[in-house]
Amino acid sequence: MEYARVAAGELNTGGIRISPRRVRLLARTLLAATVIEAGNVEQSFHTILKCSIPHRAWGERPAAEKLKAAHRVAWDLVSSTGAEKWLNRFHLKRTIATKVRYLVEFCPDKDSGTLAIEQLLANGSPEQVAAFALVVYPAAVSGGLRIGAEGVADLGVIANELLTVNGTLSWQERLSEQDTVHAEMARLSEILDELPEEGRRNRARQLFYWALLNDVTLENPELLEKQFNQAFSYLAEKGFTQ
Amino acid sequence: MSRPNIPVPPDIMHGVFRCNTGGPSSRSREQVICSSLLGAENGGIPLVVQVALDFEDFDPLETVHRILERSGVEDPQHLKRRYPSLPEPCICREFSADHPLRIRLASDEEVLSQVLWLGLSTRSYYDPSRPVLLTRASLTRQLQYFQGKGFYA
Known about the structure:
Chain A is mainly alpha-helical.
């Protein structure tokens, strides 16, 4: 079941959408293969996944490498155990809030926590890495998370860029216009103005200013702020307070 | 680029463009952005303490070792037992102190309590569980200490 769920999630992320009904069908076929074929079923799982994609029926050929990648991720997850399984699951969590929750509640030890942080910092999108580092770093510094000293230090490198932002934003203004503001600044300011609480606004401002000064275009700043705030609220509820 | 019926000016021929590009005239605008959560009131991280020593022309390391010797502290690690320090890690930020503690005028006790803070800190992180490391770089840092847990209050 977990293989089918994870593979479907990865395929959907890669633009190959399959319905819940087909995922259930895939799970039943995988179960049958496991019963019939004793021993290593990895190759069979890959074949079944490839054959379960209906896109060929309407003349669309799904990319083989996407199928292979989805199989690899799902297979690594179901075949791994202990800390390795936790690590795989951590990376499969899509939002900052779910990653933070999973780190706080289920991280088996400091080494796994450090490895998860290192891999996230190396492979995550810039805005996700920045938001994650900003929300987690103060708790990590306080020793409240299962993250080793190296992980805390690496989080600190990113988080310190966000805790204090300092720079100059530049843009072109037509001679016929006056007092314009940077287009991205105008978009982000609208979002900030709608936030209900001053503390939340200040935290989000920091994230947005960092993005502006580092030329990181936020595709969906509302969603990023919402997820950032969910992670923040969770840590506050958990007792990372004075 | 040349066109068959239009004479091309010699400066363009030689790679210098002096003609109007046709784009709208514009001016450059700039906005300075300066914002910090460290020490900020709402949603920020509260300031705990700030530490800065002024060694003037004296060598920091030699001076501190001399003070340790004079105070009967054999090992810098013993400073942990002798002086109070915050028991939990903090976020640090370098700053420029208006009035750093002048070694020449301060008492040994005052200096050593600040040496302990600096010896337990890197540029961005204070950890009371690590050994006290005294280097020229660590002793000459001017640091502000912020309590990470306060961020979630």
